[in-house]
Amino acid sequence: MENTANLVNTKKIIMTGLMMALVTVSTMVLMVPVPFTNGYIHLGDSMIFLSVLILGWRYGAVAAGVGSALADLFVGYANWAPWTLCIKGLMALMMGLAIEKCIKNRRNIILLSLVTAGAWAVFNLAINYIIDYQAKNNAAALLSDDVPDMTALGTFLGEVQSQLMLVALLIPVFLIIIAIYIRKKEHMVIPVYQILGMTLAGLWMVFGYYIAAGLMYGNFAVAAFSIPWNMVQFIVGFLIAALVTAALLKTPAKKFFAYS
Question: Rounded CA gap, 223 and 213, in Å?
C-alpha cells in the first residue's frame, strides 16, 4: 500500500515537472511586448489551464506559478517574476477549486457564473472611472512615446474605453449563457465547469496584473491600458487549452486528467 502511494506521488511530481516546463516554454515561445507597462503577452496560459486539468489545483498551482516565474527570469523580466509567481499560482488554484465546487454541486455553476460576471462588470466600471479621473486631473501622466500629445491621447483613451466596454459586455454574457446552457445539457466535449473554471482564472489573471502594474508604476490609469492585451492572452490561451483538452479526452490520455 505504501509503495503504491509512493508511486502515485512520484508520478505526480514527474508530471508537475513536465507541466512546469511546458508552461515555461509556451510562455517564452511567442512574446508580444505590451506598451506602457513594459510587460508582454504570451501563450503560457494555455498550458496553465491544461496543468490544472491534469494535475488538480495543488500541483497545478506549483506548475503554473513556478513555470511562469521562470519564464520571466529567463527572458529578462525579473521585476515581474514575484508578481507572476503569485498571480499565476492563484490563477491555477482558483480554477481548480472552482471546478471542484461545481463538480460537487451543479448549482454552484450558476452561482459562480453570476458572481464572476457581476464582479467583472464592477471592475470594468471602476477602471473607466479611474481613466476618466486621471485624464481630467493629470492627463500629462498618460502621455508616452506611443501617445505624444493631448489629441492622440483623446483618440487613444476612446479606443481603450471602447475595448474595455466590449470586454465588459461580452464576458458576463458569455458566463450567463454558460449558466443557462447547463440546464439543457448534461454533457459536453468540454464540461461547462471546466469552461467556467478557465474563465474565472483568466479574469483573475487580468485583474492581478492590473493591480501589479498599478503598484509597480504608481499609476493605475496607465496600468489599465494593458487590460485589453491581457484579455487577448486569456482568450487565446482558453481556446488553445479547450482544443487540446477536447482532443486528449478522446484518447487514452484521459486517464491522466484530475478533472475529466
Answer: 5
